[in-house]
Design brief:
Layout (H helix, E strand, L loop, with lengths): L4 E4 L2 E6 L2 H8 L4 E5 L5 E6 L2 E4 L2 E2 L1 H8 L6 H12 L5 H11 L1
Antiparallel strand pairs: 1-5, 2-4, 3-4, 5-6
Length: 100
């Protein structure tokens, strides 16, 4: 099976607005933290991700390598292992469920 592996870097942005507006617009995809003391400034952070065949495997990759932070270097390591035919179990299980 061919694996299309894509690293998506983390993002960070600062915006201004009311709490309800910010959470309504960004709450599902971003971690939101208030900046300052109630002046309407917000820091939004989206964690890095790894997509394999267009599906997120962030948690599985972190667990597989025993890491807490997903980096491009770690994704490149995974890519190299897969190229060398060392397929992690979490991908083997996923491939079986796709072929059924």
């Amino acid at each position: 099976m061919n694996y299309n592996i894509e690293y998506i870097p983390s993002e960070k942005m600062e915006i201004q607005g009311s709490k309800s507006e910010i959470f309504k617009k960004y709450g599902k995809e971003w971690h939101i933290r208030e900046q300052g003391s109630g002046n309407g400034n917000w820091l939004l952070i989206k964690k890095s991700n790894v997509l394999i065949n267009n599906k997120s495997y962030r948690k599985e990759v972190l667990k597989y390598y025993g890491r807490e932070k997903l980096t491009e270097k770690l994704v490149n390591r995974l890519r190299k292992e897969i190229e060398d035919r060392h397929i992690p179990d979490f991908l083997k299980v996923s491939a079986k469920s796709l072929s059924v």
